[in-house]
Amino acid sequence: MTSPNDSASIAWESRPVVEEKWTKTALLLSLLVAFPCAIGMVYAEAAWGLLSAVLLVGSMAPYFSNHSFRLDPNGVRRHLGIWTTRKPWHDFGRAVKIPGGVFLGCDIRPHRLDAFRGLYLRCNDALAENVLDYARRHIEKAHALETDQS
Length: 150
Description:
Strand content: 15-25%
Strand order of the largest sheet: 1-2-3-4
Largest sheet: 4 strands, antiparallel
């Protein structure tokens, strides 16, 4: 992790399966085993159970994989498994601290489509304050540059 006081960038990694309570992970794993078994028994076909297992594990892959984040003067980069998302600061309108991290929204005010348009940066509470300050500073700077250029 880069020092939060470093104005050039902030970088960190997160792994939800390790950071969450063990009871949550144990419950999730038991459901990932029990549900496909139940589907296989209900339909009396192992192929349906296997298909449901593949779909469940695929949809839960972000929970089991590493998340890496990097904030720099150009924008935000989130790497999750095989997907990388890069967005410049001018794409965001606000930064808000939420439980478990920081949310970067595309509009200045909350919108019902925020979950689909924004970007969630998972981090611990100690780092969240530094990430929030860094993001707000760069979002304001990006919008000030846009205003000056208009």
